[in-house]
Amino acid sequence: MTPVVWLALDQTAQQIVTVAVDSATGRARSRLRALLRRPAEAVTVPPLIREQLVEVHNAVVEMAVQRGLEEGRAAVIADAVVARLVLGEREDPGPAESVAEADSET
Fold this sequence. Notes:
- The protein is mainly α.
- The chain has 2 domains: 1-38; 50-105.
- It contains 4 helices and no strands.
- It has helices at 3-37, 50-66, 71-87, 95-105.
- The longest helix has 35 residues, at 3-37.
């Protein structure tokens, strides 16, 4: 084979490889974008037994008091956390409703 044929074959091979790499890269990007757009799976908390709920309540009160809340206010927050765990998912009230409810109970 002559050098001209070798050059032609080399150029053709390079173009084929370039097209293949570009195509594979495009597919990989497309799949990655699809993966990143998927919503995160919801975390499911299994039902807790009474003793576990008491521990959660005590831990929430303790942490809230450590962060400067009054014990009564901390207990209201802990009650809400435990109630949410017991009742499971429900429609979330807006932030204003949650604060108003907590304030009215203290």
